[in-house]
From TrEMBL:
This is L-lactate dehydrogenase complex protein LldG. It comes from the Bacteria. Residues 23-194 form the LUD domain. It comes from Anaerospora hongkongensis. InterPro entries: FTHF_cligase-like_sf (IPR024185), LUD_dom (IPR003741), NagB/RpiA_transferase-like (IPR037171).
Length: 203
């Protein structure tokens, strides 16, 4: 899977990033109607995703791989649970529109706005995060930047070409008679799954 950058973390400003900003990020993200689930370990993340799958009775899932999913061996676990899981880019292109859930990683959160930043250089990342009605965004809870300016400073360090998305809550529009409507142009639910111990050990 193509990425704008393989290691965003090395460009995070030490004095304007880190887990101390998570509480503010959570407050802002919740205010934008995102759902936040914070867990300690990748194993806990698998259990949380199982809970979401079972509560939705999901039959079809599309997912793009990310390091946190690999650590949790998430894809193998989902397949054992039973739903159809599509991870190949061509399969994602075929099934994303009819999938119940899309799962992808995000690079960092922004405390100021409650947004998450996704390295969406690969087309399949965009499909997974925009077409299914539920998007589960997997975030390292230590990867929180203070504000928009910090986010753009990081992007300026890594970006030469590609595609980067800022996601703030579920899709919303007021195009229809100026009435706020959720989920018309994208997912009706954004679930941010934040993992404290991303490597399975100490945070």
């Amino acid at each position: 899977m193509k990425k704008v950058c393989e290691n965003w973390e090395k460009f995070f400003p030490a004095n304007q990033s880190g887990p101390a900003l998570f509480e503010e990020f959570q407050t802002r993200a919740s205010g934008a109607a995102a759902e936040i689930i914070r867990v300690k370990t990748p194993s806990d993340a698998v259990a949380a995703i199982f809970g979401i799958i079972e509560s939705l009775h999901a039959k079809k899932i599309v997912a793009v791989n990310c390091p946190l999913q690999q650590t949790a061996e998430l894809h193998d676990a989902i397949r054992k649970l039973g739903p159809a899981l599509y991870t190949d880019k061509f399969d994602i292109a075929e099934h994303a529109e009819s999938a119940d859930i899309g799962i992808s990683g995000v690079e960092f959160g922004i405390a100021e706005t409650g947004s998450v930043c996704q390295d969406a250089y690969a087309v399949e990342s965009r499909l997974v995060s925009t077409l299914p009605p539920v998007h589960i965004a997997i975030l390292n809870s230590n990867h929180i930047l203070s504000g928009i300016k910090d986010a753009f400073d990081v992007i300026a360090e890594v970006f030469q070409h590609g595609y980067i998305s800022f996601i703030t809550g579920p899709s919303r529009t007021a195009d229809i008679e100026r009435v706020l409507t959720i989920g018309v142009h994208g997912p009706s639910r954004l679930i941010i799954l934040a993992i404290d111990q991303a490597d399975g050990g100490a945070a």
